[in-house]
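We emphasize that the prediction below concerns an isolated chain of 410 residues; any contacts that depend on oligomerization or on bound cofactors are therefore not represented. The input was used exactly as deposited, without trimming of termini.
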Amino acid sequence: YEYQLSIGGQVVSEEEWQQLVSAKTPLVQFRGQWMELDRDKMQQLLEFWQTHQHEEPEITLLDMLKIGAESEDDLEWDYDEGLRDMLSRLNDKNAFAPIPDPHALQGSLREYQKRGVAWLQYLESLGLNPCLADDMGLGKTLEVIARLLKEREEAGSVPPTLVIAPTSVLGNWRKEIERFAPQLRTLVHQGSTRLKDKQAFEEACQAHDVVLTSFALARLDEKLLQSLKWHRVVVDEAQNIKNPHAAQTRAILKLAAPRRLALTGTPVENRMRDLWSIFNFLNPGYLGKEAQFRKTFELPIQKNNDLAMSATLKKLVEPFILRRVKTDKRIIDDLPEKIEQKMYCTLSSEQASLYEAVVKDVTEQLDEAEGIQRKGLILSTLLKLKQICNHPAQFLQDGSAFTTERSHKL
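Result of the prediction step, given as a token string:
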């Protein structure tokens, strides 16, 4: 773009501007219209234009989104139809048509998942890094897998994507990939037998499409993981990087990748800074420095209930976050019927004896207990009875074996 002097949408020459600044009264007639001008402000604008008139600055899409969200409603933009359509789509997620299932997908995506993949694809095509924040159980993992398949379908060979997730869900990622996209070559970087030699690790990663690792290893093996330029870094359960000062968060921020994706059902878990930390991973600098974010948004919104700042923050982050909830009827109608199956298990003889002993003991104690002591006794007893029903070993805490003979729940 370029800088121009203008009044009321009409381009003004430097000479005309100088004449207006030199006017002895703020009320002047210009091109047949009377107007009141602030001469001091016009002088400042003239000096700015004189300094920068020969520059050809560029504005990024992130800058445009930020300026548009933080500026007053009367801010005027002059842009072409293509850019207008782009901004409209970013602010209207319903505008995304469902994409066809990837040919290699072993299964079928639901309509909302197809729209989700289309949304991910569109933001990445613009160089923007998104946050998929659907409710748990709506299939975020499958949408990412479909995105990986789709880009290989369109571009052929693609460098590996690194997925960082809690240790407890790495197995689920591997199983989902094996089930829906068995052709995606997957390396699980986990455990004592994991590759630790830099060259061997790099060669192994280049031979795979997806590399799975944990948050703990993102910190412990940070030098190893930082030795590659990844095609994409996916952070699952991104609330785990809510502390920007934690060692694992700092290690993840150093990873080199042109594409970043955050998955979380809770973009804001406890504090608004959780959101800032996730965006600092996705689009660094977009929400400003941490201290600036705290001063501009967190304190006014949380302490003063500043609705204007809350609306501004929502406008800033909305284009980057896709969240669907199970209570949305458009989603519920597309989900299969919930199937519940009740299984009844009888107590083993050991469980029955322990259960009766605990009930007898607490009955005698309740006769003498009063007030808060009585309530505490009831709660602790309920916990004991639940443990007995699960397995005697859980109640006894004696290190004995968890065998099926002692509890039919196994």
